[in-house]
Amino acid sequence: MQTTPKGMRLHIGIFGRRNVGKSSLLNALTRQQVSIVSDIAGTTTDPVEKPMELLPIGPVLFIDTAGIDDTGALGAQRVERTRQVLDRTEVALLVACADQWDDFEEQLLAEFATRKIPAIVVLNKADIAEPRENLLARLQRDQLPVVRTVALRGEGVLDLREALVRAAPDDFINAPAIIGDLVQPGDLVVLVVPIDKEAPKGRLILPQVQTIRDLLDHEAYCLVVKERELRDALSRLHRPPALVVTDSQAFLKVAADTPPDVLLTSFSILFARFKGDLTALVQGALAIDALRPGDRILIAEACSHHPIGEDIGRVKIPRWLTQYIGGKLEFTTFQGHDFPADLASYKLVVHCGACVQNRREMLSRILSCRQAGVPITNYGLTIAFSLGIFERALGPFPAALELYRHRRQ
Predict the structure, then answer these.
(1) Are 281 and 272 in contact (CB under 8 A)?
(2) pLDDT by residue (tens digit) across 128-178?
């Protein structure tokens, strides 16, 4: 369970003032000394992550944040890191001391509500003070679960675990399929996996592995080949595959070698749907036609890898977009959880497949772009659009294909 990717875990954020016992609570929940505990306010600086298995939910990721009431220049940086955690939080724990509740906690609850994040109020240090009756009544009226704890002694932790189980979103418990809903049991899917300089030694990349697992979970077969062997592999089949899925970088060759009556898409486009909102990202790709030389493009990568050779985000996509537009564009790259708060200067955001992120973080970024009026798309859709095979790449997704055809009329 410790090897489950972060993007497949339920992200549980722990928020509150400094010195209310957030770190002690994390240690009690995990039964380990994960975070440093001190009477000195502000001991936790950067967010501390702890993966574990929380039955019956399954794999989760607890994120202990710095006190969001921190002050000073360094404090402002800590608060900003804490706010980044909100973008990927799927269940929020608001930790407070019962005698300290005021507008600060109310603002946090309002932020959770705006983002539609299920929240649990944890009144820690319950051995020191009792909460006001009108506060408890108000929280009950708003249907906010309240748990009283003494984290240093482990009291109330079992109740908190039960509250977490009840708060887990249904779309995490019953997660959508990556590809299984596109095929029938017994169907064969051909997966095209190029092996280049950036391919990890001795293993496949995460989207490929997860797609294989999803096909097996849905009683389908898969055949894995490199792009140079695709034509020969297809010729050996007694019947055509239900679908061909390729690494987006090999789109042109794979499209040429795949019969036109066989559905074709890419791993990145599958993940546009699995991790984000395919309709919104298709709409974003249509904005490529409006780009002009000199426009600024933001490239967003969820993972922090060391780029080498023909890196897809830094070399290939800029080259294909520049060729499509017919003039030089300005590209800026952000990695990991970093994402600019001010998007106004960008004409387009091109995001990776987000395989290492959870869906909440990707949807938060899509929402940020929508609020800024900046279109967002992803790598696979950008590549298919700029290479002229967008319509074919959307073949397995009738609603997205219809949207594209309607917008092009």
Answers:
(1) yes
(2) 988 888 999 999 999 999 999 999 999 999 999 999 999 988 877 777 899
Reply yes or no on whether the pLDDT at 67 is more than 90: no
Tell me the C-alpha to C-alpha distance, in Å, between residue 269 and each of 109, 217, 282: 35, 20, 10
- State whether residue 153 is helix, strand or coil: helix
Structure tokens at 344: 């106004």
Cβ 269 vs Cβ 380: under 8 Å: yes
Helix 398-408 × helix 278-286 angle, to 10° = 30
Full residue range of the structural domain in which residue 127 is found: 6-173
CATH of the domain at 305: 3.40.50.11410
Per residue in 192-244, pLDDT tens?
999 876 666 778 889 999 999 999 999 999 999 999 999 999 999 999 999 99
pTM for this one? 0.82
Asked if residue 349 is part of any domain, the answer here is yes
CATH number of the domain that residue 102 is part of: 3.40.50.300
SS3 at position 122: strand
pLDDT in tens, 200-211: 677 888 999 999
Which of 268, 285, 316 represents a domain boundary (last residue)? 268
Neighbouring-strand partners of residue 266: 246
Could you tell me which of 365, 373, 377 has the C-alpha nearest to residue 340?
Answer: 365
Q: Is 57 within the bounds of a domain?
A: yes
Q: Which of these three, 173, 198, 217, is where a domain ends?
A: 173
Residue 1, in any domain of the structure? no
Both tokens of 204, joined, read 């496949």
Instruction: Establish if 81 belongs to a structural domain.
Output: yes
CA distances from 252 to 203, 247, 324 (A): 24, 10, 15
